[in-house]
Amino acid sequence: MALAISPSEALWFLPFVVPICLWVMWSDLSAMRIPNLSVIALAAVFIVVGLVALPWADYPWRLLTMVVVLVLMFGANVIGLMGAGDSKFIAAAAPFIDPGDVGPLCLIFAANLLACFVTHRIAKHTALRRLAPDWISWDRGRKFPMGFALGATLIVYLALGAAYGT
Q1: CA dihedral (28, 147, 165, 52) positive or negative
Q2: 3-state secondary structure of 165
Q3: pLDDT by residue (tens digit) across 84-134?
Q4: Residue ranges of the alpha helices (H) in 32-96?
Q5: Which of 33, 48, 80, 147 has minimal CB crowding within 10 Å?
Q6: Which residues pair with 165 in a beta bridge?
């Protein structure tokens, strides 16, 4: 599977994005919230590193993507489709995605969502739960820490872009 993102672009972003995504994943699993500071940090990484990683003509369009997605995700949050943290994370992650990769990204997200959901539920109902007994996500009924899947998706997308980008 070839991706539209260039390997160079993915490699520029990857070392900065991975720790932030891991923070988001951990925070959402443990506290069922995505810290605003993590979303600001992700957006800041794009704003700074994007100047070096992207062709100059693409940079403003990717910034515009962040704004458009933020407006759309705000609407999704208002009507109750998702949490505010998830909405803000998606907006901050949007400019990292090459516009030509929206289709493959949906497939990556679907696979990641399924894998993260199954992993979370297995851990929740087995002895693995004892590794993190105080995580709020264990006891939130049907709610799922979507930051787990969203963070993993961005990491996997950039890693695949580094390996299979064009």
Answers
A1: negative
A2: strand
A3: 999 999 999 999 999 999 999 999 999 999 999 999 999 988 988 888 989
A4: 36-53, 59-78, 84-93
A5: 80
A6: 3
